[in-house]
Design goal:
The structure is a single chain. By secondary structure, the protein is α+β, with helices and mostly antiparallel strands. Helices cover 34% and strands 12% of the residues. The protein has helices at 4-18, 22-25, 72-75, 96-121, 126-129; strands at 38-40, 46-47, 50-51, 55-60, 145-150. A 3-stranded antiparallel β-sheet has the order 1-4-5, covered by helices on one side. It has a two-stranded antiparallel sheet with strand order 2-3. A hairpin with a 2-residue loop joins strand 2 and strand 3. Helix 1 (4-18) crosses helix 4. The mean pLDDT is 87.
Length: 155
């Protein structure tokens, strides 16, 4: 179970962010991130080629090794640019990061419980697949991604 307070805090902090002036929200613009993380203003995101009427923040697992693992050739793979950090609005809303990371930690805990339950149901020892999940040398975390979205009221 995820405590209700964690969910409420995440929703409240997210709402507070979207209520900020555009200039403050753009301080974490996705345009500054090669990994496509950060704030996207209204009219930028699209679904099936149609502009969505929403603004959003995209976050994902943060990597301490931004170049990737392996030999030099593997480190230069184009998709390694997705290994990145998240642009947090610490200058304008320092409370957002800890609250969202509490939420992420809680959701990942539920995911761990689900994985263990599926292993039990399939008669698979969870230890046999543990290397596929979680930190690897503190550089390769379990991948997660999330979007915090705000749709304007319809008038």
């Amino acid at each position: 179970d995820i405590p209700e307070s964690i969910c409420k805090n995440a929703l409240s902090e997210t709402q507070q962010f979207f209520e900020r002036p555009l200039e403050e929200k753009m301080s974490i613009s996705y345009e500054n991130s090669a990994a496509f993380r950060g704030y996207m203003p209204m009219g930028v995101e699209n679904t099936e080629g149609k502009i969505d009427g929403r603004e959003q923040i995209e976050y994902a697992a943060e990597y301490t090794d931004l170049c990737g693992q392996g030999n030099e050739n593997e480190k230069k793979q184009f998709y390694h640019r997705l290994r990145s950090t998240n642009p947090w609005p610490d200058d304008v809303q320092p409370s957002l990061r800890p609250v969202i990371m509490d939420y992420v930690t809680s959701v990942l805990s539920v995911a761990d419980q689900l994985r263990e339950s599926m292993c039990t149901a399939l008669d698979v020892d969870a230890k046999d697949i543990a290397h596929l999940f979680g930190p690897y040398n503190d550089n390769d975390p379990s991948f997660w991604s999330m979007k915090m979205v705000s749709y304007p009221p319809v008038v």
